[in-house]
Each structure stands twice: as C-alpha cells, then as structure tokens.
Design a protein that fits this description.
Layout: E1 4-5, H1 7-13, E2 19-23, H2 33-40, E3 47-48, H3 71-80, E4 88-92, H4 98-109, E5 115-118, H5 122-127, H6 156-162, E6 168-172, H7 176-180, E7 197-198, H8 214-220, E8 229-233, H9 240-249, E9 255-257, H10 261-265
Parallel strand pairs: 1-5, 2-3, 2-4, 4-5, 6-7, 6-8, 8-9
Helix pairs in contact: 4-9
C-alpha cells in the first residue's frame, strides 16, 4: 500500500534525515487530550498537530465544523515543522487513523506526495515495544512551497448541482445510525444528503485495528464504478479522509472531498435532507 507504512518500517527509519513524524492525536469534545497525551510520550522525533488549532480554520455560519485553515500560514507552519518537497512525512494518531488521514489529505491537497499514515495507532506502537520519547524537539525549519490541487475539493454548490446526476456517487462516511437519521449527537439535523450511500470509515480497518490491504479495499468498494465521480463526506470533513485514502488505494482516481460535509450541508435551510435507506 503506497499510503500506509508499517511499524517496523518506521522504526528502521527513525533518525534518518528528511523524515518528519506528525502526532495527530485528538479527541472530539476533549480538545487538549491529544496534546496532553503527546506531552506524556510519543514516537521519537514526532511533532504535534492539533486538529482544531492547526488543521482547521475558524468556524463560521457556513463551511462546517472543521473548515480548512488559510493555506498561506498553514504552509509556513509546515515549513516550521521541517517539511519541504524532499521530506517524507508519516502521520499517526490513536483514533483509527481519522486525524492522521486529515493531515495526509491536506498535504496531498498542497501537492506533497511523500506523506504516509502509520498502519496503526500510538497505543499499539507502544504495546509492541517500539521506542517512545518524552522529548519535545524543536524542528529545523525549512521552506514548504504549496501547489494547491483544487480538484480534490467540491463545494456545497456543486454538490447541489450534482444531486441525482448519473455517474456521480455520494459516499457518506458516518456511522449507519447517523446516516439513517436515527440519531445525531453533534449536528442540529439528522439524516443524509439525498442519494448518498453509506460506507462507515472504520470499515477501512480490520479487526486488529490495522488498515486493510489494497485487495481488501478493492473488495470493499467493488460495488462502485471507477468511472464515476465519487464525492465523499462525513460530519465535518475529517473522517471522510480515511475513505478518500482507501478509495485511492482501491484504484479510484476521480474522488473528491466535500470538506464542509454534513455540518455544512445542514447550515443551509434550503438543502434537502433524506432519512432511512436509499
């Protein structure tokens, strides 16, 4: 798998130049829990990325709960982490890869290909006996030059236009009860975008919490046509990212992220809402 690296691979690379490891641990509703966990211990040389302070911008009336930050300052921040075009980046979290996938997606959005996700979370890394550290290093700053790929995104206005169009598939990455509209613990309206099908993002993982391999991802999305445009969304543009990566691993090329996702969709009263099975 081109986007996933094993624990053994990363352990062998520790200390090599042009490697940056990014700890993305974060718990929704406990915004500092990830940073606190990082300060207790982390993979050696790792730097920390906070979902809401580093990987998201200010929340407004529209745009969802985790909009993108301004890409200018964000690119400068990546440089401060020691990332440039020659850097290999490995991201991890302890939330099934959801937060690490957001970071992975953002680097791809800025044109950086050399970014990977650790096959599992920090807890399993530590339990397996791999090294951890309490030292918080100050990276040597580099210059990161972004090359924005706007084609990886789709706006709410374009999603509206594409509803019901042949050759377009909406993929809802949330848990099935939220998709069905049976419960909605976070956003003000329950349900899904009309026409969307459900594919819970955690189905990207196997029973041991490791990312499924390429063949398993292909089997998971065998009901989809690779010629179609796949629009992926979730609640706020975070847990859709594991599905975007899994689709890429399965060989899908025409995949777009609806970044604002459900939290953006329901911020427009005129947007239609569906419940139940499609």
């Amino acid at each position: 798998m081109k986007n996933i690296v094993t624990m053994g691979w990363l352990a062998e690379k520790l200390g090599e130049p042009d490697l940056v490891i990014v700890d993305c641990r974060f718990i929704l509703g406990q915004s500092e829990a990830g940073r606190i966990a990082y300060e207790v211990d982390h993979i050696p040389i790792a730097v920390y990325a906070h979902l809401e302070q580093d990987l998201s911008g200010p929340v407004r009336e529209h745009g969802g709960r985790h909009p993108l930050p301004d890409m200018g300052p964000f690119s400068q921040w990546l440089g401060q982490l020691g990332i440039d075009k020659n850097t290999t980046v490995v991201a991890y979290d302890d939330q099934g890869g959801a937060m690490a996938s957001r970071f992975w997606w953002m680097l791809h959005f800025l044109g950086h290909e050399r970014v990977h996700i650790l096959e599992t979370g920090f807890s399993q890394w530590k339990a397996a006996g791999y090294p951890v550290s309490t030292e918080i290093l100050q990276p040597i700053a580099k210059h990161f030059t972004p090359s924005v790929r706007t084609g990886m995104l789709i706006s709410v206005h374009d999603v509206r236009k594409k509803l019901g169009q042949p050759g377009v598939v909406l993929l809802d990455s949330r848990e099935e009860p939220r998709y069905l509209g049976l419960q909605e613990p976070i956003d003000p309206v329950a349900g899904h975008i009309p026409g969307a099908i459900n594919s819970f993002w955690k189905e990207s993982l196997n029973g041991n919490g490791l990312w499924k391999d390429t063949e398993e991802q292909k089997a998971r999305f065998a009901h989809l046509d690779k010629e179609d445009e796949i629009i992926v969304y979730c609640g706020s543009g975070v847990t859709a990212c594991p599905n975007v990566m899994a689709l890429q691993e399965a060989g899908f090329q025409n995949v777009k992220l609806y970044l604002g996702s459900w939290s953006d969709w329901v911020s427009y009263e005129e947007n239609p809402v569906a419940t139940g099975e499609e």
